[in-house]
């Protein structure tokens, strides 16, 4: 009996050992047979965590620029199970955004963004393909065409005038100063909500405005935080993120419900009323989008995700750039004088800058100033991460499928190899008007370039010139009493960059 059980144990052990050896041999054969990849350089990765412990959580544009100095213009980090490829030269950026724009034209999954966008039912964070093409087409007519700009430009100029009117009405603005961001934020909401819904908020205290601002702020904080990286990089750690993801889902649900009940459905009801067929001139963006829904091109959720995308992509980015612009105006009073004189000499005294004045380098110094703000203080310094669905080649390296590709547009625009004294705020470098923000020069990519480039540039660039130009025409902008320069220290997120301390600015009216 004992002999039999010994024998069976012996065979069992043998089988187990045999199996282990077979698996091991199999793994070695697969490894040997697999084509040898020429991966981009990078620090040696540890099992499971990869380079995570070496490089830390905060993969911001400055830390990544330092790593580029060590590992080169195209390098790779292994963050847990994710491959992260960082691109830091104009040539390599051209490869990702233009030459191989299709291969690298998708977006990565990310546990938090997936929740906020319903797993890519939106446009900004969706894969490159039919859904993206459809969403882009539907959003283009009401937002991203010259016709849309002409339709809205008087509203933009009116909102800029309201800012000036309100600031002039506040005595403290001319003495102790005001936090300018708050009023510019209302301007940005009004510009975009007038375009979207033909509606505006009268004051900063409007309860609906406050609700929107809070929920959008929460969305931004939760998605831009580095706190959830561990669950994103190492899937087995995801259960520890349950609490975080529950909050994300709650914010997402409340936000979409607010968009739906307070804006989309209001407009839907208005459109459904008999005898309210609108001409193209009377339509706002959501009317066009609801038309696409009626035709069955998109569903109700897609409509809400378009509203979600505009709230994130349009409002904060442009606001941050305005705030940086105001800070640079205050810190460089001689540039205020140059802009003011240019506006007087080209437009004539008393004529405020308007949308048609902002093109073709008609106002070279004002345009150069806006571009320089975007070069030194890029609102989205790493662009929105790109992704290659299939294995691809870049700069002679093999890029594994589904790598997260970060284009360090900030470093490309601030690297002394590409720019003279890049740390200096010098609008003169853009004076000849040859370098546009649209990506005609791969050293300057504040809006990206190619297929996934920002379509909102058509709104953001004229709007920035209108607001900055009109502020300078109406006020002398100064630091608050006792302060020499405004603090332009920055605060970054997963891929955002804004001024760390909200600037208090004194605005002394000019006759
Ligand atoms: C100063 C203001 C702005 C800056 C700096 C900015 C920057 C960017 C950047 C860097 C990207 C990603 C490009 C890439 O992945 O290669 C992007 C994408 C996008 N932006 Fe903007 N943006 C601004 C304003 C706007 C405005 C006003 C709108 C809409 C009205 C808008 C709508 C979008 C959309 C829809 C995308 C996604 C494009 C896609 O994935 O295909 N942006 N933006």
Automatic annotation (TrEMBL):
Principal location: membrane
Membrane topology recorded in Swiss-Prot or TrEMBL: Single-pass membrane protein
Positions annotated to bind heme: 454
Source taxonomy: Eukaryota, Viridiplantae, Streptophyta, Embryophyta, Bryophyta
EC number annotated for this UniProt entry: 1.14.14.91
Organism for this UniProt entry: Ceratodon purpureus (Fire moss)
UniProt-listed InterPro entries: Cyt_P450, Cyt_P450_CS, Cyt_P450_E_grp-I, Cyt_P450_sf
Similarity annotation: Belongs to the cytochrome P450 family.
Catalytic activity: (E)-cinnamate + reduced [NADPH--hemoprotein reductase] + O2 = (E)-4-coumarate + oxidized [NADPH--hemoprotein reductase] + H2O + H(+)
Transmembrane segments: 6-30
Any one annotated GO CC term: membrane
Keywords: Heme, Iron, Membrane, Metal-binding, Monooxygenase, Oxidoreductase, Transmembrane, Transmembrane helix
Single GO MF annotation: trans-cinnamate 4-monooxygenase activity
A Pfam family per the record: p450
Enzyme class of the recorded protein, top EC level: oxidoreductase
Keyword Iron tagged: yes
Protein name: trans-cinnamate 4-monooxygenase
Any single GO BP term: lignin metabolic process
Entry-linked Gene3D superfamilies: Cytochrome P450 (1.10.630.10)
UniProt KW Metal-binding keyword: yes
Intracellular or extracellular location(s): Membrane
Pathway membership, UniProt: Phenylpropanoid metabolism; trans-4-coumarate biosynthesis; trans-4-coumarate from trans-cinnamate: step 1/1
């Amino acid at each position: 009996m004992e002999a039999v059980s010994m024998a069976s144990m012996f065979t069992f052990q043998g089988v187990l050992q045999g199996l282990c050896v077979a698996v091991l041999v199999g793994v070695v054969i697969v490894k040997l047979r697999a084509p040898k990849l020429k991966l981009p350089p990078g620090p040696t990765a540890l099992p499971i965590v990869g380079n995570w412990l070496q490089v830390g959580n905060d993969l911001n544009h400055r830390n990544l620029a330092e790593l580029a100095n060590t590992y080169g213009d195209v390098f790779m980090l292994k963050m847990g199970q994710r491959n992260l490829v960082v691109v830091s030269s104009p040539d390599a950026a051209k490869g990702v955004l233009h030459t191989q724009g299709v291969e690298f034209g998708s977006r990565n999954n990310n546990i938090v963004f997936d929740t906020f966008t319903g797993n890519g039912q939106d446009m900004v964070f969706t894969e490159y393909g039919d859904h993206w093409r459809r969403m882009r087409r539907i959003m283009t007519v009401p937002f991203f065409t010259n016709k849309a700009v002409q339709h809205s430009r008087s509203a933009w100029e009116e909102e800029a005038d309201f800012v000036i009117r309100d600031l002039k009405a506040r005595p403290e603005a001319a003495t102790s100063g005001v936090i300018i961001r708050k009023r510019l934020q209302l301007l940005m909401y009004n510009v975009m909500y007038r375009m979207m819904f033909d509606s505006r908020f009268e004051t900063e205290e409007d309860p609906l405005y406050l609700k929107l601002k809070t929920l959008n702020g929460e969305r931004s904080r939760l998605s831009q935080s580095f706190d959830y990286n561990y669950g994103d990089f190492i899937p087995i750690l995801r259960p520890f993120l349950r609490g975080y993801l529950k909050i994300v889902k709650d914010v997402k649900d409340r936000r979409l419900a607010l968009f739906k009940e307070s804006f989309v459905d209001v407009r839907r009801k208005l459109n459904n009323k008999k005898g309210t067929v609108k001409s193209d001139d009377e339509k706002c963006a959501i009317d066009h989008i609801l038309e696409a829904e009626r035709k069955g091109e998109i569903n109700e959720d897609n409509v809400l995700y378009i509203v979600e995308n505009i709230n994130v992509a349009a409002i904060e980015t442009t606001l941050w750039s305005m705030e940086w612009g105001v800070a640079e105006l205050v810190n460089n009073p001689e540039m205020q004088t140059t802009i003011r004189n240019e506006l007087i000499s080209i437009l004539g005294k008393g004529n405020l800058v308007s949308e048609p004045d902002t093109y073709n380098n008609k106002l070279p110094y004002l345009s150069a100033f806006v571009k320089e703000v975007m070069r030194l203080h890029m609102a989205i310094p790493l662009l929105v991460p790109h992704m290659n669905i299939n294995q691809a080649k870049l700069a002679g390296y093999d890029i594994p499928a589904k790598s997260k590709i970060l284009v360090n547009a900030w470093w490309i625009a601030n690297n002394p190899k590409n720019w003279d004294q890049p740390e200096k705020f010098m609008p003169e470098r853009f004076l000849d008007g040859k370098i546009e923000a649209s990506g005609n020069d791969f050293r300057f990519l504040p809006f990206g370039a190619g297929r996934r480039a920002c379509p909102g540039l058509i709104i953001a660039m004229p709007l920035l010139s209108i607001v900055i130009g009109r502020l300078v025409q109406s006020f002398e902008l100064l630091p608050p009493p006792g302060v020499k320069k405004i603090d332009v220290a920055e605060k970054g997120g997963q891929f955002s960059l804004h001024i760390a301390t909200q600037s208090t600015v004194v605005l002394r009216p000019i006759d």
